[in-house]
Specification:
single chain; 115 residues; mainly beta; 7-stranded mixed sheet
Length: 115
Amino acid sequence: QVQLVESGGGSVHPGGSLRLSCVASGFTFNDYSMSWYRQAPGKERELVARIANTGIGADYADSVKGRFTIARDNSKNTVILQMDSLKFEDTALYYCHVLTWTDFWGQGTQVTVSS
């Protein structure tokens, strides 16, 4: 079965960095685009970044452009979200996502930016 396991969340001060990882299994990883979403309390889940199956080509939410970088290692079935220059408004539960024959989500990893 499809599994997406995130790690790397935590608490940081504004301006800090975190690196999220998602290890995937149960499907042919290099056939699918992979995405990171986030959901803050009281808000809808939003797309943060998406990367093509080849790793060439990525899209970002306007709010994170220039600060976040998505990457993947198809040899390790892993997708990374490098988050730099973190802001208070980046606080959210971050989810790894893949759309194969249906949507699959990880369990989420919490990112908290506070002073």
